[in-house]
Amino acid sequence: MAESKVRIQLDFSGKAVAELDDLKQKVEAPSRAEVIRNSLRWLRWCVEETAQGGKFIIEKDGKSKEVVFPYSASR
Question: How far apart are CA 45 and CA 69, in angstroms?
Answer without folding.
Answer: 12
